[in-house]
Amino acid sequence: MKRGSLVTVGLIWLALVAVPAANQWPQFRGSDAGVAPDHPALPHTWSETENVVWKADIPGLGWSSPVVWGNHVFVTTAISAGVEPQPVKGLYDPGDVHGKTDAVAAQRWMVYDIDFETGEVRWQQELHEAVPTIKRHLKASFASETTTTDGERVYVYLGSIGLVVALDMTGTIVWSRDLAAFNGHQEFAPAASPVLHEDRLYVINDNTTESFLIALDTATGDTVWRVVREETENWSTPMVWENDLRTEIVTTGRNKVRSYALDGTVLWELRGMTGNVAPTPFAKDGLVYFSSGYPGSSVRPVYAVRPGGAGDISIDPDKTTDHPYIAWFQPLLGTYVTSALVYGGIYYTLLDRGLLWAHDATTGEEVYGRQRLKPGSGFTASPWAYNGKVFVLSEDGDTYVIQAGPEFDLLGTNSLNEMALATPAVAGDSLILRTQSKLYRLSKRDTP
Question: Does position 98 have pLDDT exceeding 70, yes or no?
């Protein structure tokens, strides 16, 4: 290849990859655990018509969150050849009639690249077609895992069929790996999303056959390492914690929280979680936070952990002071599905039945008690924040806007009138919000 051609190729690659951070939301909950850079055009009010730049129809059923890189918005979905049982809002026990379901027909697993500016489909790629061999929770989907991207490729994990796929930014499949389909003992289908760090893609699947955490080479899909986990079920996305001492991979689980070194060895572990583990660990201001808790359970823990742990760092719940690694612990603050938010030094807990609770993020002390948002509404999406406000999205498609700070102040409610479970993305001047059938771009800038 001539030197001029090499320069041209290099410039094209830089144009793809060198995207300002404000125009990126590259993974589940973004790069800062749900906190977005402030922007004057980010909206705090919207409806099906107000502050809508565009809305796009997304076929099938998928509860993966949108991710954004520059002018690309990625979502996945599973399109059935038949008429599948529809999601049912609210909380219900695993034994209820609404607990789990088989697929009634073959599914087509799709990834869509939506143009950020226009809302048009830039490309769509079918990844697989088959009848799923495992059940799913009726409120879940066969495409619940959120994609992740580094601006060079977009990485998709479909736990219901065990497939990992890397596509380039034009939609061409670069590589794929079959990790096999597994389910947990309640048969709700997997939902943990893949995560990126440098040239590794990390995928977790806890199940009743052989639970694992695997590191894949991002360029080839080859296995770098794989570790077996003593777990049976988990919907929690792992997180890469780059702290002042080292970089580690923090994972939750029914039996233990575990932190792994980048070579797959266990650095530390902690007992004391509950049966159903879905909230994603996240880090803020030198601490890593993780939690779990089914509503009504007698133990619903939240832990805030300092860097440097080694071995078993579990605590005696009756003796939580002066622990070298645990900054604070709350036994009844954990949530079933939603992940917490730290914003402006406050740890916000969105309980699944629509209660917001605020604690000091450094000490765990209560800032204000539980505040009811709306009786009877379920909440699955995790909260997010920008411009001094905290946002929480109900399963009804209503977003409650709360003033951030030490006093609870509900500023308003924005309704889209359709079921919503996916956590939104925020990129630049826009909120990208997914409902059951649509994807919205919301912004205060000039709209059609």
Answer: no
Task: Determine the Cα–Cα distance for residues 341 and 361; give it in Å rounded to an integer.
Answer: 9
Share of the chain above pLDDT 70, in %: 92
Bridging pattern class, strands 266-271 and 311-312? parallel
Distance of CA 106 to the CA centre of its chain: 26
Spatial distance between the Cα atoms of 62 and 415, rounded to a whole number of angstroms: 20
Q: In this model, does residue 192 exceed pLDDT 50?
A: yes
Considering only the C-alpha atoms of the chain, give the largest distance between any 2 of them, rounded to a whole number of Å: 70
Q: Is residue 40 part of a domain?
A: no
- Residue 420 burial (10 A CB sphere; 0-12, 13-18, 19+): buried
Give the pairing type, strands 256-260 and 266-271: antiparallel
Buried b (16+ CB within 10 A) or exposed e, 272-304: bbbebbbbbbbbbeebbbbbbbbeeeeebbbbb
Q: How many structural domains does the chain have? A: 1
pLDDT in tens, 284-322: 999 999 999 887 788 899 999 999 999 999 987 666 568
Element (H, E) at 5: helix 3-17
| Residue 152 covered by a domain | yes
Give the per-residue pLDDT at 410.
Answer: 98
Q: How far apart are CA 75 and CA 148, in angstroms?
A: 10
Could you give the CA distance from residue 219 to residue 155 in angstroms, rounded to a whole number?
A: 11
* pLDDT over 60 (residue 74): yes
Cα distances (Å, whole numbers) of residue 242 to 31, 266, 282? 12, 16, 11
Q: Do the domain assignments include residue 259? A: no
Residue 42 DSSP symbol: -
Residue pLDDT, tens place only, 327-371: 999 999 999 999 999 999 999 999 988 999 999 999 999 999 999
Question: Domain for residue 49, yes or no?
Answer: no
CA 188 and chain centroid, separation: 17
- Provide the residue range defining the domain that includes 152: 1-31+64-190+192-234
What are the phi and psi torsion angles at 136 (to 5°)?
A: -135, 160
Average pLDDT over the chain, rounded to an integer: 92
Residue 20 has pLDDT above 70, yes or no: no
Helix (H) or strand (E) holding 11: helix 3-17
CATH assignment at residue 89: 2.40.128.630
Q: Can you tell me the distance from the alpha carbon of 80 to that of 254, in angstroms, rounded to the nearest whole number? A: 32
